[in-house]
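User: I'm writing a tutorial on reading structure tokens. Could you give me a worked example: one chain, its sequence, then its tokens, then a sentence or two explaining what the tokens reveal?
Assistant: Sure. Here is the example chain.
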Amino acid sequence: MGPVFPPSSIGLEPNSRLAIERVGRDGALRLGFERRRGRTVLTERRFTLPLQALETIPLGDTGSVYLALLNPTGGLVGGDRLKTEITLGPDTHVCLTTPSATKVYRTVGPPATQETAIRIGEGAILEYIPDHVIPHPGSVFHQSLTVEMGPRSRSILVDAFAIGRLARGERWTFTEMVNRIAVSSRGRPLFLDCMRLDPSSQTPAALGAMESFGYLATVGLFADGVDAWESMVLSLQEELLKSPSIRGAASPISRGGCVLRLLAHTAPELTQAVRNLWTLARQLLLGLPAVDLRKR
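And here are its predicted structure tokens:
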């Protein structure tokens, strides 16, 4: 067992659980946030490379913070097993993102796996806006995002991926991608989305699937105690129509939220569309203006 660190430590410890005979690394990240004196503060940060988290940055005048999650090794390889656990205390407001796209490299063995579990406390707000995933030729990637929402909590979630390194002319050359998103509120399921892509058995470029598009994104808005989902969907649809090159649609779920899915041809189109929708989602769900995450 590695050394025990106090809650205020970044908790960087040796990767002692890594078996020498196994390819890949075991990465762990645990973050905790609390509301103190009217502001959100990071009270717990422990990580094992190849996972890491930067310092928090204040986000506007609402007491919220922005934090970047990163993998300083440059990407994932087969056998990597990454697990992130994040807890937002009551009335906190956290925006999580990544500095750049997540690259997944070729493997001839086990998949690269990435599991993220987030618990949102009572009255807390989560904005989870990572950049998209880029699967390289021969890669196998299994990813999951699990979000548990508390009373009066709200969240905006984004998930996106490319079909390959399009600048190199690579389309659907990865081996497999499995993606799972699960959102629940007070122990009751709100949204479950499971996707498995295997280009060797059926190319999703077929008519009725992704066709000539190179990027797919899912944007979800979820909240406890909000009823105006139909009007939000109409506003999101109107925003989509402003970008003729984008194809997509929004729909309310049975309760507690709405989900939008869109297709884009290029990374700049995807980035701009997601940013526009996120800006609108902040206005509709949180009553807040746009923010600049200053990634570049």
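What the tokens reveal: DSSP finds two helices and 18 strands in the chain. Residues 26-224 form one domain.
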